[in-house]
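#lab-general

N.A. 3:47 PM
ok so I finally got the sequence cleaned up, no stray characters, all 234 residues accounted for. can someone with queue access submit it? mine expired

B.Y. 3:52 PM
send it over

N.A. 3:53 PM
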Amino acid sequence: MRVNRWKAIASGVVVLGLAGALPGAVSTASAAGSVAGVVTNDQGEPLAGICATILAGSVGVASSSPSDANGAWQVDNLPAGIYAAFLSNDCTQGQYVPEYYPGASYRQDAVSFGVVDGQTTSGIDVSLTLGGSVSGRVFDKASGAPLPNVAVFAFYTGQEEATDLGMCTDAKGKYHLNGLPSGVKVQFYPGICAPDTHLIQWFRNASDWTHAKVVTVPQGGNKPLINGRLPNGP
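B.Y. 4:20 PM
back already:
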């Protein structure tokens, strides 16, 4: 099961900033306020099934929509206001590294745009880079038993912010995170997917992001055996 990164903010998982407001180019539309753009890869080829998530304010999700075969996407019925766009694999669980418009890794670096009632803010285009994945299992540190329903997140190395959605471990403690940049820090976070008394850990038993080991992720491939061993809480 995937873990929505935006809903997880309340648990202290994701650190986000607030971008400044810049108006976008608008054209007449028959519906309420809309946002439209095109998502491509590094070669300019269109990417289908990429989720365009429109964010209101610093963390709120307004709406989302997948890109079509031409890489085009449009999100409708948005109240007038200032928004940011996040393009990711959330619709297909693909291997492309997510970005904020116009090509930022971090929320604080996203460029915001305006939406006006009855018009479409167009040209919100983003090019995504092929990433890789990591996989592994999560165990109880004392008994070695696999731990299901532990949320696993991959964080950027330059700032304590999750790259995209997390994933809950399955009945055998397994997980697989995709669409990752070349280096990440992996966090094991019990208590989000289901009640749990185990303690939060990072890969190689680190207690926080600062001391967590950087995992090298192969482009277009998978880095296995990124396992967690979680101690039980008091």
